[in-house]
Design brief:
With 367 residues, this protein is α/β, with parallel strands linked by helices. 44% of the residues lie in helices and 16% in strands. The strands form two sheets. Strands 2-1-3-4-5 form a five-stranded parallel beta sheet, with helices on both faces. The protein has a five-stranded parallel beta sheet with strand order 7-6-8-9-10, with helices on both faces.
């Protein structure tokens, strides 16, 4: 057992604990609305930056607010004054001690923004600088590679924006079935260990998704880099088609996140294209479709097969089926679990200690 594995296993309980108390989110929403917030900027680094990408999709799709990622160096390096009135600035940091994120929140507050800290330490520097704090309540995280603090950040963001929109369906789903679906995803560990043994000699890997799960691709790739030192390259499925797919050749390994939802048809098309190029793909997807779900134009998932341009090489597709479905907007909390387990198992298969990634510390201080 490793700290990383222990903390992966804790995640369903952490999310359930967060979803049980909505009072902090109501207060934060009230503060942001009172300040007249009409657009959103997220300031974060590393794993928290991947959570911020998820937050950007939530703010835009659910709340209808323009949202983006802040440029912390505008304040910390270039000392540029920016008018942030009517802006909600959300600083995200597991430790709350990342200097440039905290300094950007300080700058934003002075520039007229309403500021929220999302952190696992509500006494941290970031928490002290923001108007209000939403604590992730994940408990001490001993592994260098963050897992439970990432999914707790996703849960906090989902709870905040579901509260903003008074979306009872999402709020209810965060209590149940999301924690249960995360627990069910842990049962894929045996299959993932097999995949890790197959991948253990690979030095490069494509990771892709679209929509909400673009954050999942980013985070899974980061975990693979941190623990296994593999060149895992994350792409939006749309951006992948704008050039980078040219690097895919027969035998090229790829991990594709394709949970059910509005992004699924595009992902099925991408899977078909990757297999046609001879890629060896692992697809993280939901279990068998319901009888009311429309079929993909490319046929049932297990029948995605095609010859590559040379007419001979055929790629392969292997499915990792998530046992329990959740709403698409919440699927990143579940889909990342196989990604975390793959990073853990691949590190072990390559002979590395996932708890001691070389050259990394738990808190990274950037200016």
């Amino acid at each position: 057992m490793t700290f990383m594995r222990d903390e992966i296993l804790e995640q369903p309980d952490v999310v359930a604990r967060l979803a049980a108390d909505l009072a902090p989110y109501r207060d934060a929403v009230a503060g942001a609305r009172a300040a007249g917030a009409r657009f959103v900027l997220y300031a974060a680094r590393g794993t928290s930056d991947n959570a911020a990408v998820y937050g950007k999709y939530l703010a835009t799709i659910h709340a209808g607010l323009p949202a983006g990622l802040a440029v912390p160096s505008s304040a910390t390096v270039y000392e540029r004054a920016i008018d942030l009135r009517e802006c909600l600035v959300v600083g995200i940091s597991q430790s709350g001690e990342t200097p440039d994120v905290a300094e950007y929140v300080t700058h934003a507050r002075r520039a007229g923004a309403f500021t929220i800290a999302i952190t696992n330490d509500d006494t941290s520097l970031l928490a002290r600088e923001a108007h209000t704090t939403l604590a992730t309540r994940a408990g001490d995280e001993r592994a260098v590679a963050a897992t439970k603090t990432y999914t707790s950040e996703l849960a906090v963001l989902a709870l905040f924006w579901a509260t903003w929109c008074d979306d009872r369906a999402l709020l209810d789903a965060l209590r149940d079935p999301v924690p249960a679906a995360m627990s069910a995803a842990l049962a894929l560990d045996g299959e993932i260990a097999e995949i890790a043994r197959w991948l253990r000699f690979s030095e490069r890997l494509l990771v892709t998704a679209r929509g909400y799960n673009f954050a999942t691709a980013l985070e899974a790739a980061l975990k693979l880099k941190e623990t296994s030192y593999i060149a895992a390259m994350p792409y939006s499925a749309a951006d992948l088609m704008h050039g980078p797919i040219a690097m895919v050749e027969p035998g090229y390994p790829a991990v594709v996140f394709s949970p059910a939802g509005r992004a699924l048809p595009a992902m099925r098309g991408l899977e078909h294209d990757l297999v046609a190029r001879g890629a060896e793909i692992v697809v993280v997807e939901d279990g068998p479709p319901s009888k009311d779900e429309p079929a993909s134009e490319h046929g049932p998932a297990d029948e995605v097969r095609a010859a590559s341009d040379d007419g001979h090489t055929v790629g392969r597709r292997r499915a990792l089926r998530l046992p329990q479905r959740v709403p698409e907007a919440l699927s990143p909390l579940v889909a990342i679990v196989p990604g975390q387990l793959l990073a853990l198992r691949l590190a072990e298969a390559r002979g590395y200690d996932p708890d001691q990634p070389r050259g990394l510390n738990k808190i990274t201080r950037t200016l």
